[in-house]
Amino acid sequence: MASFVGQGSGKSKLQLQRLFDSESPLAEQLPTGLGFANARQVTFGSEIGGVGFPYHLEANGDLTILERDNYSLTVSLRFDRAGSSQVSELWFYIFVDGVQAGRSISYDFDKAGETHYLDFSTLRDIPSGTLIQVFIARDLNNSHNSGGLYRKNSSEPSLLNSAPCAQLRLDRFLNI
Question: How far is CA 167 from its chain centroid?
């Protein structure tokens, strides 16, 4: 568990406590087709947390906060497309308790073989019982049915680990 200690302008000190840093073992995560009805919920590996922990990350990608606290949440995605010369439009968004939170992020691919990375973070006081979900979709209008999240494996796995298609990190701030 990583930590960082800092001091603000007052007498209190904050410690950043790493709760987990989980990545998807999947080679790819793709929407099932065009349109938001065919979006895919992004997954981040095996189930972790639960009873006795301040969070519960399920294998289906659901993150439930079990203890109210100040959290830092970071989502990292590696996305790409293969085939076709038509434009593919990918959308990324987060739901909190079943409602979209923040803004959507979209990207248009006009050729195959483009790879991009997306990192988004938030610092929030998150109440107990909050459900957080991350989604990827392909737009229905004027979009080719291709593109998604893809893992990249190192050509020298003994020296470098792979670049996961999806990663989720949760930290919290503790007053010490």
Answer: 5
Q: How far apart are CA 65 and CA 126, in angstroms?
A: 7
CB-CB neighbours of 82 under 10 Å: 14
pLDDT tens track for 40-88:
999 999 999 999 999 999 999 999 999 999 999 999 999 988 766 778 8
Say if CB 7 and CB 13 are below 8 A apart. Answer: yes
- CA 135 → CA 7, 22, 36, 118, 162, distances in Å? 36, 16, 9, 13, 22
**Closest listed residue to residue 72, CA positions, set 166, 174, 151:** 174
- Give the predicted TM-score (pTM) of the model: 0.88
Q: State the DSSP H helix or E strand holding residue 173, giving kind and residue range, or none if neither.
A: strand 166-175
How far apart, in whole angstroms, are the C-alpha atoms of residue 170 and residue 113?
Answer: 31
The tokens of 127 are what? 């109440």
